[in-house]
Design brief:
The chain is about 15% helix and about 35% strand. The chain is mainly beta and about 400 residues long.
């Protein structure tokens, strides 16, 4: 089998030379009726702040981003699950009258196998957008416990269609062995806590015990669960517990974050801090529990005014007793340019500010020729990326 291949590399929404393909991520476009050519035209005629490597329909495939460049297709997971824009190839399946046609699926399978052969990617690393970020994509494959997805994977393996019963037994949602070893909390109180999948269904025979040390990834009030990494024997597992067990979690820095006498804005995504409207507010003089840092921003957990537990990232940390979970090896630097140096929201990203010659900055971390810095502005401290060759380490 072969499929007509088309190429259009005038898309601007990607990072050049930053992708090391380890995964193949399958999406659907979410439209009612579209084509590979139509999507290529849309994503190549303006800054869409999104992209994929390939678009597939019934009669052809169009590539719009080169495989060793990073497309913006699954960054909403912020690499929490080990899969992101810099280690994956994104494939979007186009829809025909609201569905993914059989021929489009066949063409996608052909493309996936071709990419697998090229990079040695195993079937286990052909994943859904869902596996990267919990976004319900490819949405068309979701009904009946993702039955069409498991059919897709079975066909990739060269096997027959997997039954829904087998799917339920062998693939409980989002329960899997994890290689995350760090912890940030301890389970307290009496009795075991039932382990759940992400539909809040109990996973038979799986419990978290009192005094177990866990890593709390997130608290999700709307879904009524808490996402955790917990120990069982000599292994760690990713799963969920009911939000009703929130009061049994004792964080390592339990309620040690003290807000001052003003509102502190909170964002649910670390990548939205200072870029979008805030999602929550930590009220004046309230306490919170620091959880960890992501992209330099501190994630805290706290109670809303109505008593519901929640969490999110803060841009302003006030006068805390210590710098919670601060990154190691932070260094100080001095800007060395003729006038000013642009600060960007990501590597080769959009300009969000400026630092000036001889200005002192804090280098939070480094990333292939770039520094992620903290710098002073008239509105307080901000963070962003700058070209490393223009900053001297003190």
């Amino acid at each position: 089998m072969s499929v007509e291949m088309k190429y259009r590399f005038d898309n601007d929404d990607h990072w050049v030379g930053t992708n090391n393909p380890e995964y193949i991520v399958i999406h659907d476009t979410g439209n009612y009726d579209d084509t590979d050519e139509g999507n290529a035209n849309y994503f190549c005629t303006g800054h869409r702040r999104a992209s994929a490597h390939y678009f597939v329909d019934e009669d052809s495939i169009t590539q719009v981003v080169r495989e060793h460049d990073s497309a913006f297709h699954c960054g909403d997971g912020y690499d929490r699950y080990g899969i992101g824009n810099r280690n994956s190839i994104g494939i979007e399946m186009c829809k025909t009258k609201g569905d993914i046609s059989e021929q489009t699926i066949e063409n996608t399978l052909w493309l996936v196998k071709d990419i697998q052969k090229k990079y040695g990617i195993p079937n286990s690393k052909v994943v859904r957008h869902w596996d990267c970020s919990r976004k319900e994509c490819p949405n068309t494959f979701m009904p009946n416990n993702w039955a069409r997805w498991w059919d897709f994977k079975a066909r990739l393996e060269g096997n027959k269609i997997a039954s829904v019963e087998t799917i339920k037994k062998d693939n409980p949602y989002c329960f899997y062995e994890s290689d995350i070893t760090k912890t940030n909390a301890t389970i307290v109180g009496q009795g075991n806590i039932q382990v759940l999948d992400d539909k809040c269904n109990s996973i038979e025979g799986r419990y978290i015990s009192s005094l177990d040390k866990i890593f709390v990834l997130g608290i999700y009030p709307s879904s009524k669960f808490i996402e955790v990494i917990y120990p069982s024997g000599d292994k760690k597992y990713h799963a969920y517990i009911s939000i009703e067990n929130y009061n049994r979690i004792s964080f390592d820095y339990h309620m040690e974050y003290q807000n001052d006498d003003g509102d502190t804005y909170v964002w649910w995504s670390s990548e939205n801090v200072n870029k979008t409207e805030h999602d929550e507010v930590l009220a004046p003089n309230k306490k919170a529990s620091p959880m960890y840092r992501e992209n330099g921003w501190l994630r805290i957990s706290f109670y809303r005014e109505d008593g519901t537990p929640t969490d999110g990232y803060v841009r302003y940390e006030g006068q805390q007793s210590e710098k919670f979970y601060e990154e190691a090896k932070i260094k100080q630097g001095v800007v060395k340019v003729s006038n000013y140096l642009n600060v960007r929201d990501d590597v080769n990203g959009n300009i969000i500010g400026k630092v000036f010659n001889n200005e002192k900055v804090t280098i939070v971390w480094t990333e292939t020729g770039w520094y992620y810095i903290e710098y002073d502005t008239s509105h307080g401290k901000k963070r962003g990326y700058v070209d490393a060759k223009y900053v001297e380490i003190e």
